[in-house]
Amino acid sequence: MGNPYVPREMVIEEIIPENPIIKTFVLKPKDKKPVEFIPGQFIMLTIPGVGESPFAPSASAFETEKLEVSVQRQLGGRNTSALHKMKVGDMLGLRGPFGHGYPLDEFKGREVYVVGGGLGMAPMRSLMLALLHEADQYKRIILRYGARNPELRMYKELCKSWETDPRVDVVYTVDVADETWTHNVGVVTTILKQEDIQDVKNAIAVGCGPPIMLRFMTPVLLKMGFLPEDIYFSMEKNMSCGMGMCGHCRLGDYYVCKDGPVFSYDKIKDFPDIWA
Amino acid sequence: MAFFVSFSDFEQLLEKWAQETPVYVPRYISDTIHYQKFTPGTQDGIVYDRIRAVEPLKSFFFKIKQRVAQYPSSPSGAEEAEPDFVIVGAKACDLRSIECSDDIFMKGEIKDPFYVQRRNRVTIISCDCSSPAETCFCTMLGLTPYPQEGFDVNLSKISEGLVVEVGSEKGKKLVSQDRDFFSEASSEQLEERDKIRATTLSKVREQNEKFSVNKSFQELMGENLDSPVWSRYAGRCKECAACLAVCPTCHCFLLYDQKVDDSFERVRIWDFCYHRGYARVAGGPNARPIGKDRFKNKYIDKFDFSMANFGVYACTGCGRCVDACLANIDMRQVIKDLEGS
Q: For A184-210, what is each residue's pLDDT tens digit?
């Protein structure tokens, strides 16, 4: 029996600044074995001697020789501050992936309506890359992405390339614009429109973002005609062990680490305080 | 078939086992009972049939503090090999609690190698409880004060010795390797055992009649999420987490990392959901920022979550939480009050 508490050594190959508070770390496994995950699953990243925190891989799941993780530096956050000080060549630790990702096979043949907000765009990037990898398998791929302001947007180049990509229908928004901004202004729920979807009975929605965003987009999606079982959310709780043992991430009858973090809305809607 | 062993023969057996492997026995230390490693020649104060020890049995398998990883270059699997060991005098409530921690640590997709190793190494010799405290309520959780499952060997104290029941292959081996010490229990001996059992059972039932509720605990949780009862008790609760520390089914832990010489280590310590930061996530949001929600969390976890996931309540009615509470909060009364709210 292996020891699931021991992290796998990962070397930082590249550090990409996404914006003033988010960096993407490109990690290569020291053991050179593939790094596999399903979009939506999460990993525990160890900062040696400092601690470990849960993150969502943002890379393509089809590139298994490396892993990309976007990390937002939290005010007063010990782990994220230490991570932001690390350099190329430094060692990090990886545990996981843990939990359940998006059931992509069930998405096939359907319109996939991806809604990302803030840092929630990190796993949505990995999901988008997986969808686009087999774009012809899906009826339509639609992305709606909101950020607080243009400066805090992530993956700016990639997002720009999607604007002209015929395989994907994108709309971007920011809460507060500046003079460079040419897209929508307003919170992400303001860009979710009935006409975005051709046949809602054969469509699924995926949302990842701050709890407040998920909370406010839920009634919008339901009004558009999405069934609760066709709406998928990535839930954030205080995941720590990743194995359903340490107790911290309980959400109703589930542990988010092993039963989630991806849940269809029908599974969680009756629990109290799911957005707390 | 049930066996019988005299007190003096059992003492000899203890001495013999302790030569080979660590044996833990319940012993009075001032006026409470604690597990102690048995040293040959020290039989004084050992009590098999008294109420469960203060320490929950889980601490043998899920240690209060344990180094779980060294990195880089950590050996795989559980670290140092642990010896076989014997626990004597576990009670029925203790056995149920181990069922609960097995669900968490060794029945899931990923298993905890430290827990699994200790569990595989243990031989559990349980014993009927014949001295329940006023705080005992195992019968409310569908248990009896005498073990019916989950033991390798069970002992029932009667006037002239111990009635012995075998509950597993391990137990069978233990008895057969010292078969000379055991005789077949007579019908009179079994009758005496059954009489003691019945007396204890009625005592626990009677003292808990005033707490009986007409619905299942799980239903009461589901129907009373917004009950004012939670705030009322939360106002008294000091959030000291003593109830959680002594709880035999609580399994929460915290992982922390530290630097040691040229490498790093990861340590696991018990953690408690009554601590304010327990559910807090990066950036500050907290699923249970107020005391009422944290107070309630324990009950929801034990009586709803556990039943929904494992088909068993994560409460054994051992009463340790009632004994430990600084604010004299009695779990039974909380549940009773929920029914009336």
A: 999 999 999 999 999 999 999 999 999
**A-contacting residues in B 116-135 (Cβ below 8 Å):** 116
Residue B311 backbone zone (phi > 0: left; psi -120 to 50: alpha; other: beta) = left
Q: What is the DSSP letter of B46?
A: B
> Of all helices (H) and strands (E), which one includes residue A27?
strand A22-29
Of the candidates B87, B233, B255, the residue with the CA atom closest to the CA atom of residue B155: B87
User: 3-state DSSP call for residue A118?
Assistant: helix
Provide the whole-model pTM.
Answer: 0.94
* B255 contacts in chain A (CB < 8 Å): 5, 51-52, 240-241, 246
- State the count of interchain CB pairs (< 8 A) between A and B: 125
CB contact under 8 A, B69 and A53: no
Q: Give the pLDDT mean for B190-214.
A: 97
How far does B340 lie from chain A, in Å, by closest CA? Answer: 22
pLDDT, tens digit (0-9, with 9 covering 90-100), for A216-248: 999 999 999 999 999 999 999 999 999 999 999
Q: Kindly give the interhelix angle for B113-121 and B92-105, rounded to the nearest 10 degrees.
A: 140
Residue A273 has pLDDT above 80, yes or no: no
Grouping H, G, I as helix, E, B as strand and the rest as coil, residue B298 is: helix
Which tens digits make up the pLDDT trace of B22-80?
999 999 998 899 999 999 888 888 899 999 999 999 999 999 999 999 988 655 545 56
Residue with tokens 């943002």: A58
Please tell me which of the candidates B74, B76, B104 has its beta carbon nearest to residue A245: B104
In the 8-state DSSP scheme, what is residue A74?
A: P
Of B112, B281, B282, the CB nearest to A245: B112
pLDDT at res. B262? 84
B253: which chain A residues are within 8 Å (Cβ-Cβ)? 241, 245-247
Percent of chain A as helix, strand, coil, to the nearest 5: 30, 30, 40
Q: Which neighbouring-strand residues pair with A173?
A: A146, A184
Tell me the ipTM for this assembly: 0.92
Contact A149, A176 (CB under 8 A): yes
Question: What span, in angstroms and rounded, lies between the C-alpha atoms of B169 and B31?
Answer: 36
How far apart are the C-alpha atoms of A83 and B22, rounded to whole Å? 45
